[in-house]
Task: structure prediction
Amino acid sequence: MPRFSLIVAATATLLAQRAATFESRPATAIENDKIELLVLNKGGAFASLLLKDDSGKMNPMWNPVALARMTNGPARFGDSIGHFVCVDGFGPTSKEEAAAGLQGHGEAHRQNWEVTSKGREGRTQHIAWRAKLPVVQEIFTRKVEVVDGEQVVYVESALENELGFDRPINWAEHGTIGYPFLAPGKTVIDASVGRCQTRPHVNQPSNRRLVSDKEFTYPIAPLKAGGMADLRQIPDPPDSMDHSGCLLDPARRLGFITAINTEKRLMLGYLVRREEYPWLQEWMNYPPNLALSRGLEFGTQPFDISRRATVEMGKLFDVPAFRWLPAKSKIGTRFLFFYTRVPVGFNKVDDVRQENGEIVIEDKKSRQTVRLKASLSL
Result:
């Protein structure tokens, strides 16, 4: 190999993992020749995902700090940013849990994560973290991998019970997209879901546009004002906030969720193991000041509600609303996400699958297919 090639290869390896910041927060960058991912050191949120050859540097992930600057408003949501993990807990706590120090959406995204290993083997590099969850007495671990030449991030996680009894747990991956990637008339959302329900409300807030506690088939949902709404689209003008819970198609081993900005022709997508993440909650936060966010929240329950409420619910559509974590044991999950360009006219995702070392994404109406290298399987 020529000396120049050796230098380039060594430099690429050195730059593969490095210290970084995101909105003044310490982060770790993991990158290859195609993508750059920033992971916050506290809480492990996937705060930024960029294509290396995108001159516009459009990050699809929700950035509430930047949206606060844009609107001259207060920064909200604290440690919630981008794609963050809600474990053990997804939603509010009981008054007793709150008194014991447990906050909403679990402890993991509020802890400092310890790097336990990092390195490269062949074309694959990884970083692994560990976080102790002191109130619930669990240990959360996560490994992120990227492969040279791929636009895919692979995520493997485990939750360990330090206590000597079985317990119901709540775990959601709070994948969240935001403005400007998420914009009225420009962004469409697809997923391998069908049977859904709007979130129940005892006293429905005035800014909800969907009927409370109503079953529907995605993406067409019932409006309070009458008629139906296509949830693939963002309302224009935006002025509402709703939640829906949808069952990932039980006929599929791998479920998908995608978001396409049709103006920039950029797509963010997820592939998940349905038996580990049977539910997709969508948090559709559309204020009129364009500080838009949409949660693509796949997890163990249909809505972000308390532990007690999920146990009392038991099941929805005959599918459990929580997962068991056995005594002194571990449970795990694995999913991947990708970021890519799509061709002109590619405006809807009908299928995403992994086969023969590729992710295959199909738009049947336009008869177009996007193929991405994906060498590590689910």
